[in-house]
Design brief:
About 30% of the residues lie in helices and about 20% in strands. By secondary structure, the chain is of the alpha/beta class. The chain is globular and about 65 Å long. This is F-box protein SKIP2 isoform X2. Pfam families: DUF7885, F-box_5, LRR_6.
Length: about 525
């Protein structure tokens, strides 16, 4: 009835293990078909070792890899034992499939379990099954698994001694569960906690536990009583990265404990050197992120004792001022990346930035949001910070043509520049046309004084430069944010390859790109 015949796929015994199928490409309209022609297709993967096929699978995305597993039994088998990352929809309906799922994927080391708010998540029993099946698990991410309790996490921790990274968000367990993880997972290197409902006022102290010597990164986000993590933060002697974001309460006291610990470490190290010994296992903090916190200059003065800091974010902390920034600049002379969101409080400005220019000659990346800097401080930074490669200036009413001309004339190493919501004009763009000889990327957004003609002129002058400009005639209620300026959250995908119907997400750090 005018329909195409089905494709016939047959196996042919030959040295090259080829396949033969009958083609229907020669179709004669309305009356039938011509003689069907047999075409040989060679399966070039037949002689390929399983290990090489698994290596190829590593370069595929989740969807492509799922489809490849359906090609034949061999690909299905190789995909199963070579898949190390898995991301699952952690609804209660998946419970019956867990045994068969982890029989097939028996080499999983990185697992993400996510459940939506409207669904019921898997329970403690399911987590126990996973801990028994995945004996080599090194990374676990939990999102919205509200049915998992302290007892379930405690049992999981006892069975998962190889765990190195744990990320929990929007779960209901609390301090007891985390203390169990810290006690039993002695190899834990990264701990990320977000909106954990069980961490509330009056919660028992957390840490440090057996993981005190292995932890290198701690991230606390949107917690009611994040101060309960103080023993863990202070007791983690190899901690290199600390991120505290949008957590309630006063954090000055916690930062003072951190600063005092670092100072004691420095004094002990000097003492050990005098006596011919040193503790090679102790590494001071190198990266601190403070965002939307109740932190004052007392806290900044405290972290200035962490003299090895290379990356510092001070974002939307309205009680911080020039005094605190000066303390940091005078003591943290190895600073390479500095992000400041002054939230337009005018408490951080030229005075603090001049101190940065004077003491932090290794600065490579500077992001200023809502900071009213002028040509005085920007000129000092341009002259003294000769390694500055990335600069973002956003939401400042004092950064105009003069300031941009200063940057264009003096920032010889600058490669990437972002200007957003600043009162500049075409004059500033003209200055950039001949300045900053190493500039490869520029973004100008929501700057009303800049015309589209200026952008076209700049493209003609700097043909190899990547230029991103808009018409700049809207949004009078501008509010700068980290994501607006290209400093966005990127991360390593926990579920590089996922099971059918699974989802993926990211978790990482802010980067200027």
């Amino acid at each position: 009835m005018g329909q195409s015949p089905p494709v016939v796929l047959g196996r042919v015994n030959s040295p090259c293990d080829s396949f033969t199928f009958l083609s229907s490409s020669a179709f004669i309209s309305g009356e039938g078909f011509r003689d069907q022609i047999a075409v040989e297709i060679v399966d070039y993967t037949a002689e390929l070792p399983d290990e090489c096929l698994a290596f190829v699978f590593q370069f595929l995305g989740p969807g492509d890899r799922n489809r490849c597993s359906l090609v034949c039994k061999r690909w299905f088998r190789v995909d199963g034992w070579s898949r190390h990352r898995l991301s699952l929809n952690a609804q209660s309906e998946i419970v019956s499939s867990l045994p068969s799922l982890f029989t097939r994927f028996d080499s999983v080391t990185k697992l993400a379990l996510r459940c939506s708010r409207k669904s019921i998540s898997l329970t403690d029993d399911s987590l126990l099954t996973i801990s028994i099946r995945c004996r080599n698990l090194t990374r676990l991410k939990l999102r919205g698994c509200r049915e998992i309790t302290d007892e379930g996490m405690s049992t999981f921790a006892k069975n998962s001694k190889k765990l190195r990274k744990l990320s929990c968000g929007s779960c209901m367990f609390g301090a007891k569960a985390l203390n169990a993880v810290l006690d039993h997972c002695a190899n834990l290197e990264e701990l990320s906690i977000k909106r954990l409902r069980g961490i509330h006022d009056g919660a028992e102290p957390i840490g440090p536990g057996a993981a005190a010597s292995s932890l290198k990164m701690i991230c606390l986000k949107e917690l009611v009583n994040g101060q309960s993590f103080a023993p863990l933060v202070v007791g983690s002697k190899n901690l290199k990265t600390l991120k505290i974001i949008h957590c309630l309460g006063d954090w000055d006291s916690v930062l003072q404990l951190i600063g005092n610990r670092n100072q004691n470490y420095k004094e002990n190290l000097n003492c050990d050197i005098n006596y011919g010994s040193s503790d090679s296992n102790s590494n001071p903090l190198m990266e601190i992120h403070l965002e939307r916190l109740q932190v004052s200059d007392i806290g900044l003065s405290a972290i200035s004792k962490c003299t090895k800091i290379e990356n510092l974010h001070i974002l939307k902390t309205p009680e911080c001022s020039n005094y605190g920034l000066v303390c940091v600049a005078e003591n943290c002379k190895l600073l390479r990346k500095l992000h400041i969101d002054g939230w337009r409080t005018n408490r951080i400005g030229d005075e603090g930035l001049i101190a940065v220019a004077k003491h932090c000659s290794n600065l490579q990346e500077l992001v200023l949001i809502g900071v009213n800097a002028t040509h005085v401080s920007l000129s000092a930074i341009a002259c003294n910070c000769s390694k500055l490669e990335r600069l973002a200036l956003c939401g400042s009413g004092t950064i105009g043509d003069t300031e941009i001309a200063c940057i264009a004339a003096k920032c010889m190493a600058l490669k990437k520049l972002c200007i957003k919501g600043c009162p500049i004009s075409d004059i500033a763009i003209e200055a950039l046309g001949s300045g900053c000889p190493n500039l490869v990327k520029i973004k100008v957004r929501k700057c009303r004084g800049v015309s589209s003609d200026a952008g076209e002129w700049l493209r003609e002058q700097r043909g190899s430069m990547l230029i991103n400009m808009d018409a700049c005639d809207t949004d009078c209620g501008f509010e700068a944010s980290v994501s607006d300026i290209g400093v966005h959250e990127t991360g390593v995908e926990v579920g590089q390859v996922t099971a059918v119907g699974a989802s993926t997400s990211s978790n990482g750090e802010f980067q200027l790109h």
